[in-house]
Design brief:
The complex is a heterodimer of chains A (282) and B (324). Chain A is mostly helical. Helix content of chain A is 76%, strand content 0%. The relative contact order of chain A is 0.14. Chain B is mainly α. A two-stranded antiparallel ribbon of chain B has the order 1-2. The chains are: A mainly alpha (282), B mainly alpha (324). Chains A and B meet through helix 1, helix 3, helix 4, helix 5 and helix 6 of A and helix 2, helix 4, helix 5, helix 6 and helix 7 of B.
Chain lengths: 282, 324
Amino acid sequence: MRTIRSRHVVSGGMIGLTYLAAILATLPLVLILVHLLAKGASSLSLDFFTRMPKPVGEAGGGMANAIVGTLLLIGIASLIGLPVGIGAGLYLAEKRTTPLAYTVRFLSDVLNGLPSIVIGIFAWEFLVRPIGHFSALAGGVALGAMMIPLVTRTTEEMLLTVPTSLKEAALALGYPKWRTSIAVVLRTALAGIATGALVAVARIAGETAPLLFTAFGNQFWSTAVREPIAALPLQIFAYAISPYDEWHRLAWAGALVLITLVLVISIAARLVTRSRFGAAVD
Amino acid sequence: MTSLSAQWLDRDRRRLILEQSAIPDTVYGILTAACALFIPALVIAIAVAIFAAAWPAFAKLGLSIVTSSDWDVAGGHFGAAPAVFGTLVSSAIALVIATPLAIGVAIFLSEFSPAWLRQPVGFLVDLLAAIPSVVYGLWGIFVLIPLLREHVMPFFRDTLHLGSTPFFSGAAYGPSMLAAGVILAIMALPYISAVSREVLMAVPRSQREAALALGATRWEMIRDAVVPYARSGIIGGIMLGLGRALGETMAVTMVIGNRPEISASLLAPGYTMASLIANEFSEATNDLHLSALMAVGAALFVITLIVNGIARWLVWSVSRARAK
């Protein structure tokens, strides 16, 4: 028979272990950020943002083309992912219990869990192979497909936080259903939906694997959607696995820029929701 | 004056006609339903694309693509068993490391954390999921691998004398199954902990109060009353993390060493299905090679589909039980 004292000692020990787990789990993030700052900050200069990559052996150079390429890819992806995702979210929030709603909800979770490389293969098979060359468009489509399930689910969630009384008031005033949905319900939840959109953008901004099959990367300046295009994650990958110190330096700088982009978007998204929905969510 | 009010009347009347008509509502309904239908269509299109691309290799090589371990591009042999092995082993290592940590954090956040720490710690762990995998890979190459090679690997092999076991034998090059497992553990952790935290927080207060009233210590309350209640949700979270780990590409490609050999040693380089595709795609020399890579992708698709399906079902069964 164990004594009460020993049971309390075990309890205290296990609780201590959960504190330890919390410390260990936050450690990698801190380490990664510290290393990025330590190794990347010194290589960041105006040149990094305005110059093109230089050939092996020449010092200096930047990633101007890759930064523009990433922004362009995010733009194409958003053009696809946002309207479809928000539309599907509206459907799910309004027709909550139809068989189609259950199917869509399940499949959007499935889509969300698919490896990004599989989505890259999909865009390659439909948009690169038949055409015969890589393109920014194919890259944007792959990233857009990854955005859809994320935007759909957050849109649905945010629409459901809108009080039914608001909707009923609009209908009682004689608003038709579609205007109630768009001008009242959607508009009330707009901040939350914007957050979902930001989170989705943050998630795809750093994607690399699908771009290997689609955007492919480009050494030169290009903003043509039908041509291969450079992207920050692709450039970081290529430089990181190269044997040159100068390129490693640029890879760290690129990673610092990429993570700053992603973290700023993520934190902004967090702040928007907290100020608007904090009370309702917590 | 009269003409203006007549105009208004006219405008109002037109608006009324538009608003009372069922047509805009129908159009709106069709548009949103079309957006919703886009998702099943996309999943089907992805499946069609990947199996169409993989078909030539399946037709020619059959299941030997995933069962044979002879990957010889020049000789026309495409057996990706080492990559399947590497995918399973690296993901298993990741779960072994990440699961206790993630559940520990989740319990900390849902039960013991001081209120002021709950938000920041939860946010920091969640942020792990936002870091791009290529950044993990970069960090893996230049920070994690040197650390493993100089300190962790010698510690297991020499200090603990595990070098004589097959699991820690051989030279410590750095890029290895162990490095891939550790990186994947960090990447899977936020998914497991986020789901676990949610299901733990959904456990009713009465469950905890009843355990405490019966004289349980705080830990016994967690172990006997809270965790069992949330068990299937936690398992769902682990499966979600597993799905992430199985399909993760860039970070693994950068740290695993990319050698198509099956080795029991965690210190030896390996290959995963995703890294095999990413690594060889751009240098695929002929159609069969390309198709074989796509067949590996198809196998990965099926595996992650099953794992994610089970995960979602488990998480849903918990939330449905809660709703009742």
